[in-house]
Amino acid sequence: MRAALFYGKEDIQVKDVPDPTDSCDKILVDIEWCGLCGSDLHLFQHGPEVFGDLTKHGEELPYALGHEFCGRVNSAPPGSGFKHGDPVMIDPRLPCGQCIECKSGKDYGCPKQGGIGYNHSGGLAEKVTVPARNLHRLPETVPLEFAALIEPFAVVMHAIRKLNISDWTEQDVLVLGGGPIGFALVIALRSYKPRKIIVSEPTAVRREKIAQFVDLVVDPLERNVPAACRQLCAGGVDVVFDCAGSAPGLVDGLDALKCEGKYMNIAMHEKPMTLSALPLALKHVTIIFSAVYNATDMDETIKLFAQGTFHGYEGMVTKRMLVDDVVKEGFKELIEHKDDHIKILITPKAHLIEG
Ligand SMILES: [Zn+2]
Ligand SMILES: [Zn+2]
């Protein structure tokens, strides 16, 4: 099979490798589409060490990256509940299943978390074997050509649900960043019908793409974001979602919050976050962090995709390509022209591109 093998920092080579073999507890999946994620880019640019323990204790390099992928079952052991041809979405998480977090239903917080496409061979290949528990069957109403987006949507659904807000129609929201996670968040959040959504995004392409889904898009390099929020929403916003991970964004977001506002961070800040306590204390701000999701979030996200609850996610896909082109047209394109893209989808099947 063809696979884009990750050897280490800035070294991915597309090669013919032996097919993975299905075993009694694993299911062989033919991959159709795999999304490129910021974390794949991170691994490519900085090497496996960048995620510390996440990329230890797994397979030996090289293996295929890619954790946002869907496909069809090639073969499944009897009794697994799956059969040849079933459309499936992969939950790439590999929590240990033994620790306190795993046993108390918080496996998203497993300290020994591994992942398909992180420390085990993933979606930038023709085939992969995965444990049955990592597969979610897709209803026929979910188009496979967009199903890989379910993974980043599960990330944002987890963050939205974690806020425990019962009535979103009373909430004004500021979203920092209109990249893949910010875009998915806006689309998902719209189904909750918040009163207002404002997006702060410095790049023109992304501002243009997201404008139709929100009440206001602000260029933070041109305009004072907290002032724009206070102008549109009396007193500021109730909730900020940080999908950008930038220091000026953090300052803007905290400033834009009303008294008792909530700051939900989904971004990976590369530098330590610096906060001034007094203004936040006086406003009684709550800061919450969220990452990944659990199986329920993914099931729920699939259900919402199947019901047609989310509108506009198609616009997230800015490029599709063959796995053979993933280095030059995928990784390097994202490094050199990151701002022109939201989500790039990769397939090993030429007919899916041509058709
Ligand atoms: Zn991802
Ligand atoms: Zn665990």
Explain what the structure shows.
With 355 residues, this protein is an alpha/beta fold. It contains 12 helices and 18 strands. The protein has helices at 38-46, 100-103, 144-147, 150-162, 180-190, 204-211, 225-232, 247-256, 277-283, 295-307, 326-336, 350-354; strands spanning 2-8, 11-16, 26-35, 63-64, 68-75, 87-90, 93-94, 114-115, 127-131, 135-137, 172-176, 196-200, 216-218, 237-242, 257-265, 286-289, 317-322, 343-347. Strands 3, 5, 6, 9, 10, 17 and 18 form a 7-stranded mixed beta sheet that branches. Helix 7 (225-232) runs parallel beside helix 8. The longest helix has 13 residues, at 150-162. The protein is globular and about 60 Å long. The two termini are 21 Å apart. The model has no long low-confidence stretch (mean pLDDT 95). It binds zinc ion (2 copies).
Tags for this entry?
binds zinc ion, oxidoreductase, alpha/beta, NAD(P)-bd_dom_sf, about 30% helix, GroES-like_sf, oxidoreductase activity, 12 helices, 7-stranded mixed β-sheet, about 350 residues
Q: How much helical structure, as a percent, in the residues?
A: 25-40%
Distance N to C terminus: 21 Å
Please indicate the percent range of residues in DSSP E strands (runs of 2 or more).
25-35%
Structural class: alpha/beta
Number of helices: 12
Radius of gyration: 20 Å
Which small-molecule ligands are present, each listed once?
Answer: zinc ion
What's this entry about, in short?
It comes from Exophiala bonariae. The protein is of the alpha/beta class and 355 residues long.
